[in-house]
Specification:
alpha/beta; 3-stranded parallel sheet; 21 strands; about 25% strand; elongated
């Protein structure tokens, strides 16, 4: 064994010093921290120190919003003028980027920065919209050619006239195209006021995986371009959008969410169809409008679906449409179905509900409890493997109604019934009595008070 005295002359290895200042962190960590800022905030970090002067150019996330420029105009925009401290490396006059964009350069040719940078702002744009567009144009011009993780855009369209709206949307389409050329994996676009017009040509990327769009018109050919030009797209969220395509096909989508006021163009009574062979989850809540309910086809992997049908959204709402629509969901294991439309009466013996042989988790609203439990009975008769049933028993005048020759059902696999209500009510008592009379024990019922 070595003598401990042999080590007495050795100098201990120095312990690495932990960073005591944010500036001591490695650049890649600083860039990740800065990616949680808006792009305008990230640009402001150029004032921190010389080390930070150009960091914003390599941030892997762009987050720009028109709302950050509201209330600003050229005459009092001293903050915006100083935002870009890092000018082009070959500029020697020290002029900041936004000073250039204010039309203050002294070139002999007299060309304004409006002509140089924006190729003409759209007539009628508010001053803060002009400043925003110039800011983003210059931001993208001076960024380093680094890969983007995410691109978030909060845009503004202040006209609902089609031609003017398309003209005012051109910057948004150009910026989206830029982000996708930088291999952005996630893109989120939303618009104030009126819908931004999104053109198919902007959407070409082998990297795009998630797409979130709010308040937009999706021009004809949009979904065909996604299918051809974005083969890695797996997640799509649409909120308050007008869809000009009647045929939607995607071989890559796994999650599709339609949220609030999704409108399908339906000239001459056309019916939309959705085909997605890899789709796992589908949500169509809070207002799908069109000539008829869309046809759902070729969804063999679909496991979960949530559907809400609102009053007046479907022009031709009938039993055939309900049957066809539900037929596309017959292989799901989890289904939430909400009916907020006017009373719909089914013809006697009409088989509008398919057999849900794989369904284990079912949620229904009060429309299926009203009218002597008609809708609920039909679903239970066609869900032989159901394990959990969730019912909302809040008061409502909506209903799916009809007559049944056979009102019996068996749910041998049913383990729990969750009943959602607001306080005690006559409806709650009726529901519990109905379930108990059909073989469901009280200890299987769970009442959730949402009041």
């Amino acid at each position: 064994m070595a003598d401990a005295s042999d080590n007495r002359g050795m100098v201990p290895a120095p312990v690495p010093r932990a960073p005591t200042d944010i500036g001591d962190l490695p650049e890649d960590i600083l860039l990740r921290i800065m990616s949680h800022l808006t792009s305008r905030q990230a640009v402001h970090t150029c004032l921190v120190s010389p080390q930070w002067r150009y960091l914003w150019r390599s941030v892997p996330r762009i987050n720009v919003s028109i709302e950050e420029f509201e209330g600003q105009h050229n005459s009092n925009n001293h903050v915006a003028i100083e935002e870009f401290e890092g000018e082009d490396d070959d500029d020697d006059d020290g002029m900041s980027i936004e000073e250039e964009s204010q039309g203050e350069d002294d070139d002999d040719d007299g060309m304004s920065s409006e002509e140089e940078e924006s190729e003409g702002d759209v007539e009628g744009d508010d001053e803060h919209e002009v400043l925003f567009k110039r800011f983003v144009n210059r931001l993208l011009e001076l960024r380093n050619p680094v890969t983007l993780d995410e691109f978030h855009l909060r845009y503004s369209v202040s006209s609902n006239t089609r031609n003017m709206s398309l003209s005012r949307s051109r910057h948004a389409n150009s910026w989206i195209s830029y982000a996708l050329q930088c291999d952005a994996q996630a893109v989120q676009v939303s618009s104030q006021y009126y819908e931004v017009q999104l053109l198919p040509a902007a959407f070409t990327s082998s990297s795009l995986n998630r797409l979130h769009i709010d308040n937009a018109t999706l021009a004809p050919g949009f979904f065909n371009q996604l299918q051809m030009g974005c083969p890695a797209l797996e997640y799509m969220f649409l909120h308050d959008c007008l869809i000009m395509d009647l045929e939607i096909f995607s071989s890559s989508l796994k999650v599709l969410i339609f949220s609030s006021e999704i409108r399908f163009a339906y000239d001459h009574g056309g019916q939309a169809s959705i085909s997605a062979p890899r789709l796992i989850s589908l949500s169509m809540d809070y207002g799908i409008s069109g000539a008829r309910l869309p046809i759902l086809t070729n969804m063999p992997l679909l496991k979960t679906a949530s559907v809400g049908l609102c009053a007046g959204d479907i022009q031709a709402r009938d039993a055939d449409g309900i049957k066809q629509f539900l037929g596309g969901l017959c292989d799901v294991t989890t289904l939430d179905f909400y009916y907020w439309d006017s009373k719909l009466t089914m013809e006697k013996s009409f088989q509008w509900c398919p057999i849900f042989s794989k369904l284990t988790n079912l949620t229904l609203d009060c429309s299926f409890v009203n009218e002597d439990f008609y809708g609920l009975i039909v679903f239970l008769q066609n869900s032989p493997n159901l394990q959990k049933l969730t019912l909302s028993v809040d008061k409502s005048d909506t209903a799916i109604a009809g007559e049944l020759e056979d009102r019996s059902f068996t749910c041998e696999q049913l383990q729990i019934v969750e009943i959602r209500c607001r306080g005690t009510s006559e409806m709650l008592s009726r529901v519990t009595q109905f379930l108990h009379a059909n073989g469901i024990r009280h200890d299987q019922m769970c009442i959730v008070d949402r009041s």
